[in-house]
Design goal:
- The chain is an all-alpha fold.
- The chain has one domain.
- The N and C termini lie far apart (79 Å).
Length: 85
């Protein structure tokens, strides 16, 4: 049998409970800690992204037009893509 008195066992139990509650609390992360106010893109950033996308699209269309003019129009998309893979 335990040589501890009832009062000592109660105190030891309370200390164990406090220690486990502290360790659980330290490991808990709430969403509020991660959620920060979202900032939208500035007007210059939005305009820059739009111009970049438009330029990339224009270059892709120009490259496709050059390939079609050199090699001719493919009879099927698969025949056109196979040599390029």
């Amino acid at each position: 049998m335990s040589r501890l008195t009832a009062e000592e066992r109660r105190r030891a139990f309370e200390l164990r409970q406090v220690a486990t509650s502290r360790s659980r609390q330290a490991g808990a992360v709430t969403l509020e800690q991660f959620s920060r106010p979202q900032r939208g893109w500035s007007r210059a950033a939005r305009l820059g992204a739009l111009v970049s996308l438009a330029l990339a699209g224009t270059l892709l269309v120009a490259q496709a037009a050059r390939v079609v003019s050199v090699h001719g129009a493919p009879s099927s998309l698969v025949e056109w893509l196979l040599p390029r893979l």
